[in-house]
Automatic annotation (TrEMBL):
SUPFAM superfamilies xref list: P-loop containing nucleoside triphosphate hydrolases
Stored CDD domains: ParAB_family
Chain coiled-coil ranges: none
Protein name in the entry: ParA family protein
InterPro entries associated with the record: AAA_dom (IPR025669), DNA_Partitioning_ATPase (IPR050678), P-loop_NTPase (IPR027417)
Residues of the signal peptide: none
Organism placement in taxonomy: Bacteria, Pseudomonadati, Pseudomonadota, Betaproteobacteria, Nitrosomonadales
Residue ranges of every copy of the AAA domain listed in the record: 3-162
Pfam family, one: AAA_31
Domain of life according to the entry: Bacteria
Amino acid sequence: MVIFSVVGTKGGIGKTTLTANLSALTADMGLRVLMVDADIQASLTKYFQLRSDPRDGLTSVILNGRVAETAITPTMWDRLDIIVCDAPRRKFAGIETTDLEQFIQGRIDAPMILRRALRSPMIEDHYDLVFVDTPGAQGPLLYTAALAAHRLISPIMPETPSAREFRVGTIELLQKLDEAQALGISPGPLTAVLNRVGHTNDARQITDEIRTSYLDMKGLVTVAETIIPASVAYNEAATAQLPVHRLKRRDRVSPFDTMHELVWEMIPSLRGVYAGGYSEDGGE
Ligand SMILES: Nc1ncnc2c1ncn2[C@@H]1O[C@H](COP(=O)(O)OP(=O)(O)OP(=O)(O)O)[C@@H](O)[C@H]1O
Ligand SMILES: [Mg+2]
């Protein structure tokens, strides 16, 4: 079981979109996937239709430090479950949502809460992959969600100010996460993924610049080869509550291909496996 947390220190860069699409595609490839909505905006919770009303969610996981079966809700897609962010609607043991960050902060074991809950036999036995969506601002919820992961993914938009902010924000975040070394926890390596790259962007040049600027980060940050173009498909898919690889569109670069490339790059053992479980060598 591998846990990916999708992080960033900026809002609106595509974290939720990426979390939802990577999760749904890998589930479609045949893996058992759990999404965790660790952002109190609860955008991931609303992304796909659920098979039933959630009985429980993130609040109970954070407060109890473990994932009860009732905290997991199946989505309408096969093999894809979610721990919803129920925080905005829930009062649990007298604690309201906005208090969730405060609650985490008040705990001595704050950085380990989600890590311990997700790296448990119950999750290990039931899932191959876990994708955690996180808030766009630094805080205890982002830290505990990021430290739960074996690997971090961070979308980055190609505009230069945004790229610069990304570097500063990412360094700050990684430095912060590094404080957990004192507790014996090493943050996972981070892969930056260029997202919403328009026709006018010289994507290759910007990618090279970003890649070079990360050379001094001792391999902690790598920039993915796969680039996600700007396409209304991502928005249309979200509106239709569909994973983007299922949307029928004729883009210059199809989101179907892009998302497959990205999954193959992140998880090389899946290379050649397509949605529907078909592999290039004809097997299933
Ligand atoms: N490759 C893309 N091309 C075009 N639009 C995109 C792309 N990726 C994401 N978007 C759009 O960008 C907007 C923001 O995306 P998203 O909600 O995933 O960002 P976020 O980082 O999760 O934001 P927040 O910080 O608020 O949680 C959405 O409208 C989404 O449809
Ligand atoms: Mg989001």
